[in-house]
C-alpha cells in the first residue's frame, strides 16, 4: 500500500512539474523608437535562431520567452537601422528600445554595370540556395478584421501551426489551428455585418501571396515585359548590405498591376522584404474581386462594389543560413453601395500573420482531420478580450486605438 501511495505521489509530482514547466515563461513589453523618438512598426525582436515577436503599427510589443541561458540575447532588427543586441539580463517591462540608423544611400551610382532586372532574375534563380527547400513548420499568430468605414464587421485572431512544404515544390501549405477567437463586440458596440460578408480562408491567401514561393502570383511569368525595375539605392538589414529595388507597371499596360519596393541582399541575392500596392497606372482595370472575401451575388442583390486599393507586405528572417518568413500583411479597400439596403461606404479588410518560431523538424503530425479547410471562417465567438487568452504563444500586441476600445469590454 505504501509503495502504491508513493507511486501515485510520484506520478502527481511529475504531472504537476510538467504543467508548471509548460506554463513558466517570462514576459517583457515596451516600444521601439528611432533616433528622433518616433515609433517603428513591424520591427523584428528575436532570440537568435529561436522564438521571437514583432512590434505593431504603433511600435509596441509584448514578448514571451521560456527560461534562457546567460549567453542568450534579444536581437532587434529593422530595415535601414543597425542591429541591436540586448542581453537577457537587461530585459524588463516597459522597455524603450532605441535603434540607430544605418547608412542609406538613395542616390547610389551603379558602376558595376548590374541592372535592376538582372538582380531580380538572379534573386529568383537563387531561391533554392537562399530558402529552405525541405518541409518546415512555422508557429504563428494571425489577426484579421473587416470594417465599413469605422464600424467593425468582424475581428478574429488565431494561433496557428503551419507546415510549409519547402520553396521548390508546388505542394500547398497546411494549417492547423491551435486556438482561435472571433469577437462579438468591439468596444461598446455589437459587431454588425449588414452586408453578410465573411473573411474566407484568408490565412491560406496570405501564404499563397508569398513572393518567394509563388513569384508569378504577384509579378506574373512575363514580369520583365510588364514591369519596370530600377535600383533606388542601398541600405542595411540584419547587418548586411542590400539593394533597394523599386518597381512599377510599364506605361501602356492595360492591367491592374503593382507598384512597390524590394530589399535584396547584395552578397546572396536573397529577397528579404517586399511592399507593394496597386499601381495608379492600372487602378482603373482593378476588379472588385478578393479571393478570400466570401460574398453574395452582388448584382442580383443590388450591390455595386469597386476596388480602391490592395496592399501586401512580407518580411524574412535569417536562421542558420536560410531565410524564413516572419511577417505577412494584406490590406484591401473597396467602395460599395447596397441599393436595396440604402448602405454606402468603404469596406476595408486587413489580415496579418506573424511567425514567432520556425521548427526545421515539424512538431505536429498534419493529419487530414486536423487541417484547417481552405474556406474556413473563424467561429469561436467571444465577448471578452484578454491578452492572456494565448498562454505562452507570442502575439502581435493590439494597437493603441484597438486597445482602447477592447478594454471597454474586458472584465474588471
TrEMBL record:
<feature type="signal peptide">
    <location>
        <begin position="1"/>
        <end position="22"/>
    </location>
</feature>
<dbReference type="Pfam" id="PF13715">
    <property type="entry name" value="CarbopepD_reg_2"/>
</dbReference>
<keyword id="KW-0732">Signal</keyword>
<protein>
    <recommendedName>
        <fullName>Carboxypeptidase-like protein</fullName>
    </recommendedName>
</protein>
<dbReference type="InterPro" id="IPR008969">
    <property type="entry name" value="CarboxyPept-like_regulatory"/>
</dbReference>
Amino acid at each position: 500500500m505504501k509503495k502504491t501511495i508513493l507511486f501515485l505521489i510520484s506520478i502527481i509530482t511529475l504531472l504537476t512539474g510538467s504543467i508548471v514547466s509548460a506554463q513558466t515563461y517570462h514576459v517583457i513589453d515596451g516600444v521601439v523608437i528611432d533616433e528622433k523618438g518616433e515609433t517603428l512598426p513591424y520591427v523584428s525582436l528575436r532570440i537568435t535562431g529561436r522564438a521571437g515577436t514583432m512590434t505593431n503599427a504603433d511600435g509596441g510589443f509584448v514578448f514571451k520567452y521560456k527560461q534562457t541561458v546567460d549567453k542568450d540575447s534579444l536581437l532587434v532588427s529593422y530595415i535601414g537601422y543597425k542591429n541591436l543586441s540586448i542581453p537577457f539580463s537587461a530585459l524588463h517591462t516597459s522597455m524603450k528600445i532605441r535603434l540607430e540608423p544605418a547608412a542609406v544611400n538613395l542616390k547610389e551610382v551603379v558602376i558595376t554595370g548590374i541592372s535592376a532586372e538582372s538582380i531580380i532574375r538572379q534573386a529568383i534563380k537563387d531561391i533554392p540556395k537562399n530558402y529552405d527547400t525541405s518541409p518546415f513548420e512555422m508557429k504563428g499568430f494571425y489577426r484579421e478584421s473587416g470594417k465599413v468605414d469605422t464600424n467593425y464587421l468582424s475581428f478574429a485572431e488565431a494561433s496557428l501551426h503551419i507546415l510549409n512544404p519547402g520553396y521548390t515544390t508546388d505542394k500547398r501549405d497546411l494549417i492547423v489551428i491551435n486556438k482561435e477567437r472571433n469577437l462579438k463586440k468591439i468596444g461598446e458596440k455589437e459587431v454588425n455585418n449588414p452586408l453578410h460578408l465573411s473573411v474566407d480562408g484568408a490565412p491560406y491567401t496570405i501564404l499563397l501571396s508569398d513572393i518567394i514561393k509563388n513569384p508569378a502570383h504577384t509579378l506574373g511569368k512575363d514580369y520583365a515585359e510588364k514591369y519596370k525595375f530600377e535600383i533606388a539605392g542601398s541600405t542595411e538589414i540584419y547587418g548586411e548590405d542590400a539593394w533597394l529595388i523599386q518597381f512599377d507597371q510599364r506605361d501602356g499596360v492595360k492591367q491592374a498591376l503593382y507598384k512597390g519596393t524590394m530589399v535584396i541582399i547584395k552578397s546572396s541575392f536573397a529577397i528579404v522584404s517586399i511592399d507593394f500596392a496597386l499601381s495608379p497606372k492600372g487602378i482603373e482595370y482593378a476588379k472588385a474581386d478578393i479571393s478570400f472575401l466570401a460574398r453574395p451575388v452582388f448584382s442580383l442583390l443590388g450591390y455595386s462594389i469597386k476596388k480602391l486599393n490592395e496592399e501586401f507586405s512580407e518580411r524574412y528572417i535569417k536562421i542558420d543560413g536560410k531565410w524564413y518568413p516572419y511577417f505577412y500583411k494584406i490590406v484591401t479597400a473597396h467602395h460599395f453601395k447596397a441599393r436595396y439596403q440604402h448602405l454606402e461606404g468603404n469596406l476595408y479588410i486587413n489580415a496579418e500573420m506573424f511567425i514567432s518560431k520556425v521548427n526545421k523538424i515539424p512538431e505536429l503530425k498534419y493529419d487530414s482531420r486536423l487541417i484547417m479547410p481552405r474556406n474556413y471562417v473563424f467561429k469561436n465567438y467571444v465577448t471578452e478580450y484578454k491578452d492572456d487568452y494565448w498562454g505562452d504563444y507570442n502575439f502581435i500586441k493590439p494597437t493603441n486605438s484597438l486597445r482602447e476600445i477592447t478594454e471597454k469590454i474586458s472584465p474588471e
